[in-house]
């Protein structure tokens, strides 16, 4: 195998991961089982329905019954964490929903995924911003991934 082929082989996992993320950005992430209108009382703080939500993927404000595009961005950040750890669950060291809730409410975000670049981790940190309105919209996330993919593929072609 030539040196160029060896270098290209090292990039294959990143290419596949970015392709998966690109497809997710273009498609639906989940079903509509827990969907509601903004302001729907079904998920207000301390409601019974909150007990059935996937706490590992919820933004801090969701525990107070507030859902928004920003909370969707947080959940997408958790999905990215799973992708770039090759399937590790966020907050894997915790088992009880209440422990996970406390970590999220106190701004403990998942650690740097072992297969994520520095630039991607910076993007993840933006997805986990304390204030939902400061989290990047999906249009910005898509543009960032497009730039990351272009850099990956262009660099490979000319090395």
From TrEMBL:
GO molecular function: ATP binding; transmembrane receptor protein tyrosine kinase activity
GO cellular component, one term: plasma membrane
Superkingdom of origin: Eukaryota
InterPro entries per record: Kinase-like_dom_sf, Prot_kinase_dom, RTK, Ser-Thr/Tyr_kinase_cat_dom, Tyr_kinase_cat_dom
GO biological process, one term: cell surface receptor protein tyrosine kinase signaling pathway
Residue intervals of the Protein kinase domain: 1-153
Pfam families in UniProt: PK_Tyr_Ser-Thr
Protein name: Protein kinase domain-containing protein
């Amino acid at each position: 195998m030539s040196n160029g082929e060896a270098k290209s082989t090292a990039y294959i996992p990143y290419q596949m991961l970015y392709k998966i993320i690109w497809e997710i950005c273009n498609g639906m992430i989940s079903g509509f089982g827990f969907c509601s209108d903004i302001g729907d009382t079904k998920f207000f703080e301390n409601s019974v329905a909150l007990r059935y939500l996937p706490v590992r993927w919820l933004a801090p404000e969701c525990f107070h019954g507030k859902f928004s595009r920003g909370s969707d961005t947080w959940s997408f950040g958790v999905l990215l964490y799973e992708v770039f750890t090759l399937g590790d669950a966020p907050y894997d060291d915790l088992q009880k929903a209440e422990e996970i809730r406390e970590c999220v409410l106190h701004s403990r975000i998942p650690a740097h995924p072992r297969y994520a670049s520095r630039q991607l981790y910076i993007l993840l940190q933006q997805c986990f911003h304390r204030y939902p309105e400061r989290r990047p919209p999906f249009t910005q996330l898509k543009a960032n991934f497009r730039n990351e993919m272009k850099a990956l593929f262009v660099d490979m072609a000319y090395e």
